[in-house]
């Protein structure tokens, strides 16, 4: 098992080598032994989508692991991950941002966040559209949130085999990113710094890297089907 995990990780890292793109191992549903093997293979960035699972696993593993919250986050769960979470990829409302700020302050730290954009064709509940992004960045209260930092955008492409469509969706996220970065949107609030685009999963991470992703979130390609 361990040698397979390590081989899969090496394979992916080799593919990503030409790009400035970080591999986040999506460890949801995987055992502590599998996470340990991932750490031994040299990966320090772990992505979980459920708060309870992240909170259970974190104390059982080395302290230098960087925990990424990649799944939808309810405001009432923020407090559990606020002491240690490295990056929250799935911020999709100002209310959630305020809650993260509040809990970060209690822990005397700043929590980096990505704003999740809705880029897929299909019906999903989560993510901001462009207008909602503008509204969030123009919220006059944003500058008062001293304990969060918005560092980029996240998106999930449609669940489809249609590569052309996935590519179009990645390009739309990249375009929005370039626009906010060029126009320095939100930056006068003092807690916005456009650096990261989190896009790409097991089926499409290479395409995502080619289209400008800086972080791919890969699970089943490392560990097998869930
Ligand atoms: C599960 C998950 C992934 C990884 O999915 P795989 O297809 O296993 O690579 C990436 N991003 C999010 C938000 C997820 O929930």
TrEMBL record:
Residues 4-225 form the Alanine racemase N-terminal domain. InterPro entries: Ala_racemase_N, PLP-binding_barrel, PyrdxlP_homeostasis. Its cofactor is pyridoxal 5'-phosphate. Pfam families: Ala_racemase_N. Coiled coil: none annotated. Keywords: Pyridoxal phosphate. One of its GO terms (molecular function) is pyridoxal phosphate binding. The modification N6-(pyridoxal phosphate)lysine is found at residue 28. Belongs to the pyridoxal phosphate-binding protein YggS/PROSC family. Pyridoxal 5'-phosphate (PLP)-binding protein, which is involved in PLP homeostasis. This is Pyridoxal phosphate homeostasis protein. It comes from Sandaracinomonas limnophila.
